[in-house]
Design a protein that fits this description.
Largest sheet: 7 strands, mixed
Shape: globular
Number of strands: 21
Number of helices: 16
Structural class: alpha/beta
Helix content: 25-40%
Oligomer: single chain
Strand content: 15-25%
Radius of gyration: 22 Å
Distance between the termini: 21 Å
């Protein structure tokens, strides 16, 4: 790694790869940094070295990533894998750690492409061993071909059905699928159907997954409510309500999922402004048409700025790349606009289905704001929903004050797993919209940093 680059990109998912490819192909000095051993991000994880021989298991959409990886390799971009970015400052100083050594790097332009993470799913027992996110199950399948048989899939959203379908094609037994999608969501989604009709193939794909899962003999229950995961040392079963009846399924493995949200920690810690998005029930970065944030020289591309999916992230990555080239003097405005225009049109078309999907798979209130007050909200500090509400009763107005009351959000994840839940609990307890509650304040380092690395870093900075 050098000390300075024209453009530094954080995250090698679809947005990061295409932004880097665009910038590299136009002569900029580019650094692409990612935590994984190879480029691909979560959606295309391990696509360049995939060992699963049957390509039908992960599906053709996954292997689109091979083309993006190939483009990246041909662009001459310097790519650093297995590295952790723990800081991006307002003056575009990037803190990077790799192999126990920390570095500070400067860039004229920074593109944060940290992608999405799964939404918290706080139900009783969700912290028990044997419970994990559906995305985690897919990571195991992609990265090492490992699957967990006889699992119960619980939740809503395309990823839940996709992972279950991939399990089915891989011949892995599934105990049951408990769909928590509220029945009223379909009526709300119908208002956005005209915009989604241009993506009929996507809609039919989802229906095909569900049809084949049912045909595979897997119990598929819809409208499930009142989820409770039970067990002592580890999960042993699932209790729930279905059509007014209480039921129980024994299970040693449970996969939870209720959509994805932007991974905002790095962008927020850099000081980029965010706003509450009521349609997606999460924080979105405030960006312009070129993905530029409110901090000069820092752009946020892909799902890290707002959920749009892999194809939309790929397109916005290219747009962000052209924008960064222009800002660092590598491309004039006319050329930037001309080259970005086809990708901008494709992006607008790709986003046409998003309002429909956001409405259809909007998570139920009971799975965002725990009804059982004993439910753990903050996994790091083991703070319950009851403790959060008690703090509000004592005068706590937001998540940053809550830290003083309970340490909620002060653990290693810095609110990744509790931030959204805390926001909505406080808003509900105060009787105000979630948009009126401040976001949890984040500070660097956003990832764990060994003290020895920081000490060794000091002489390099002249402190």
């Amino acid at each position: 790694m050098k000390d300075h680059y024209d453009i530094a990109i954080i995250g090698a998912g679809p947005a990061g790869m295409t932004a880097a490819t665009v910038a590299g192909n136009h002569g900029a000095s580019v650094l692409l940094v990612d935590e994984q051993p190879e480029a691909g991000g979560q959606i295309y994880r391990a696509v360049g070295s995939q060992t699963i021989k049957d390509i039908n298991i992960l599906g053709p959409d996954y292997y689109i990533g091979r083309g993006l990886v190939s483009e990246l390799r041909g662009s001459g971009v310097e790519t650093i894998n297995g590295a952790t970015v723990w800081q991006v400052s307002e003056d575009r100083e990037i803190g990077v750690s790799r192999d126990g050594v920390a570095r500070l790097i400067k860039a004229d332009q920074v593109i944060i492409a940290t992608g999405a993470q799964e939404r918290p799913f706080p139900v009783p027992g969700w912290t028990l061993p044997g419970v994990m996110n559906a995305g985690g199950a897919q990571v195991l399948l992609k990265s090492s071909g490992v699957a967990m048989p006889d699992a119960v899939f619980i939740g809503t959203g395309p990823l839940l059905y996709l992972v279950a379908y991939q399990y089915l094609k891989a011949g892995v037994a599934i105990r049951a699928i408990l769909d928590t999608t509220p029945r009223a969501n379909m009526l709300r989604a119908m208002a956005h159907l005209p915009g989604a009709l241009g993506h009929l193939c996507v809609l039919m794909k989802g229906r095909r997954w569900i049809k084949r899962l049912r045909a595979g003999g897997i119990p598929f229950l819809q409208g499930v409510e009142g989820i409770k995961l039970i067990g002592e040392e580890a999960v042993s079963g699932v209790q729930f309500r279905h059509r007014g009846q209480s039921r129980k399924i024994e299970a040693n493995t449970v996969f939870l999922h209720q959509g994805v949200v932007p991974n905002i920690n790095l962008a927020m810690s850099a000081g980029c402004a965010h706003r509450w998005n009521e349609a997606q029930l999460c924080w979105h970065a405030e960006t312009d048409a070129w993905a530029l944030s409110t901090i000069p020289g820092i752009a946020i591309a892909g799902d890290g700025g707002g959920i749009g999916g892999a194809r939309a992230a790929e397109l916005m990555g290219r747009i962000a790349g052209y924008g960064a080239l222009h800002r660092c003097g590598r491309m004039d405005e006319a050329e930037r606009n001309r080259l970005a225009q086809p990708f901008r049109r494709a992006y607008a078309k790709e986003m046409g289905i998003r309002p429909f999907l956001d409405a259809l798979f909007r998570p139920a209130r009971q799975f965002r704001i725990p009804e059982d007050l004993s439910t753990i909200v903050c996994r790091c500090e083991e703070v319950t929903a009851e403790k959060v509400r008690e703090a509000v009763d004592l005068g706590c107005l937001g998540p940053n004050q809550l830290k003083s009351f309970s340490r909620c959000g002060m653990g290693p994840c810095q609110g990744r797993f509790c931030g959204l839940t805390v926001n909505e609990i406080i808003a509900d307890a105060r009787g105000v919209p979630a948009a009126e509650i401040d976001a949890m304040r984040l500070r660097p380092p956003v990832k764990p940093l060994i003290l020895g690395e920081l000490a060794d870093l000091a002489p390099q900075t002249g402190d």
